[in-house]
Amino acid sequence: MALGAVAEPPVRRRGSDYAQLSRRISQAGLLERRPGWYVTRIVLTLGAFVAGWVGVFLLGDSWWQLPLAALMAVATTQVAFLGHDAGHRQMFRRRGPSEMVGLLAGNAAVGLSYGWWVDKHNRHHANPNHEDDDPDVGAGALVWTHEQALETRGIGRWMAKRQAYLFFPMLLLEGLNLHVASIRAIIGREPNGGYTVPMRHRAVEAALLVAHTAAYVALLLAVMSPVKALLFAVVHQALWGLYMGCAFAPNHKGMPMPTAEDELDFLRKQVLTSRNVRGSRLVDTTLGGLNYQIEHHLFPNMPRANLRRAQPIVRAYCVEQGIPYAETGLIESYRQALGHLHEVGRPLRG
Which of 188, 202, 234, 307 would be 292's cystine partner, CB 3.0–4.6 Å? Predict the structure, then answer.
């Protein structure tokens, strides 16, 4: 899906467009940190997370653990959102405190490698929806372009034909995929002996992942039978992966995918490839602020609580510059994403 004519930016003052918007955002005070807001958010989120695990311990060997596993999937995703904010230094300007929160939220609480995620996510932010440079749209279990679809073989081709229908069921495996990817990132090496993923605190990350896994398994087996423990883990991890996927899917899927031929400045590269999701503050909380994807991509270190206030400024500026600003409801965002996945598989269905 090429950018086409709609993405052609005006050449006049092109290099200064983002700087002008940045000045407006800065003058509004929206890049200032929100320590009070984040302290409250961290206390409430981690409080719910810890309370959930206390509930697991107290409930014991009961089938009511399965509904609790579903609630824990929600709590786990909310903790992961804190790791996301820490990775972008939305909480603190300094790297040290940001990394500490990220490691505790990601590796210790969720079982997700913070260093791997930061490396992958930063590459996504640098070139969103770019087939060659964005790891989120590289060919894998899903394909994002006709070219990727035509290169599939075997079970991959069978899945590519039907990927729009398989998308949500496949998200039930995303939690497992994130755990496996985290382990591979920590231990994976290149043929020359170097690590495949750069990581500042590899030993600490490995230790925290081991501690997370050991504590998770030990707690479940200590309070319930092996069968219930296994079912709890399946429900928890499956719904966590589904929630994570549903939170990130509306952001870029089905939006233009620039190529090497598209010469876009930073402002247009970020706006044209991103989609906002309309909604109340409940939507803001449910999606971890990712529903303001355009503002987040333009100012990734902006505190989550300021994104709602930044939106009218960014939207008005895009109107001034003649830049399309995509915003839709949550259900419509999924429809557009699934429509793109279905269209990508069309050559294979012929």
Answer: 307
